[in-house]
Amino acid sequence: MIRARRFVILSSLVIQIMRSKSETISLLIEPGIIAVVRAQKPGQVLPVAEALIAGGVMAIEITMTTPDAIAAIRDAREKIGDRALIGVGTVLDANTCRAALGAGAEFVVTPVCRTEFVSLAHKAGRPIMLGAYTPTEAQTAHEAGADFVKIFPADMLGPGYIKALCAPLPHLRMVPTGGVDVQNVADFLQAGCAALGVGSSLVSAKILQDADWPELTRRAGAFVSAAREARKMY
Questions:
Q1: Mean pLDDT of the residues in the chain
Q2: What is the mean pLDDT of residues 14-35?
Q3: Rounded average pLDDT over 72-85
Q4: What is the pLDDT of residues 55-77, one digit of tens each?
Q5: CA–CA separation, 34 and 60 (whole Å)
Q6: If you average pLDDT over residues 196-213, what whole number do you get?
Q7: Residues 150 and 129: beta-carbon distance below 8 Å
Q8: Is 158 left (phi over 0), alpha (psi -120 to 50) or beta?
Q9: For residue 52, how many C-alpha atoms fall within 13 Å in the half-sphere facing its CB?
Q10: Residues labelled as active-site residues
């Protein structure tokens, strides 16, 4: 009986924090910093998430390169799902996409243009970000129904490339990933990006190795401040 009651309580909690797709999209866009977490071990995911939340970053993408990523996503959703958006990244096949959604991932990110993932995410009521590098790939992702287009790797392209894409393709919600740092946040956002995927310049290997959560909170706060200041300018 006690176990049954606990299950009901947990189920009610999960239902309470199930956001609509449109609500999730709004939270990804504001403040627009999506932390890309490539944890070295599963036990790092929760303290990393807590440090990011303390700094104002709510969108947390747990990549499939994290050991036991599916279990980590499920655990994070149960423990901090009321305070953060827990998504999955580096999704490369349909089975992984299904498993992550089943574990509670609130958004799906893939570095490649796998259009068949769109129906899986939307059936679960979740937004999806398909990867693209060229204008053709970006438009293909959009036409397939992707809610966002992940421009990857963005470090070799830069804000100028985003601005050039926006001219003929202003309907795209672009999210550059790779090469985004606190110094170029404003440049990317003002070029027309909907949000930014931020990896090692935020959640660095050294921070993970040293468990330096105060530094992670400081960096998260700096990124959020930079994003909000940039949005005031346009």
A1: 93
A2: 87
A3: 97
A4: 999 999 999 999 999 999 999 99
A5: 6
A6: 98
A7: yes
A8: left
A9: 31
A10: 61, 150
In Å, how far are 135, 150, 228, 229 from 24, measured between CA atoms? 26, 16, 18, 22
Q: Report the residue count for the chain.
A: 234
pTM (2 decimals)? 0.92
Confidence of residue 17 (pLDDT cuts 50, 70, 90): low
Rounded Cα gap, residues 19 and 35, in angstroms: 19
Residue 25's DSSP bridge partners are none
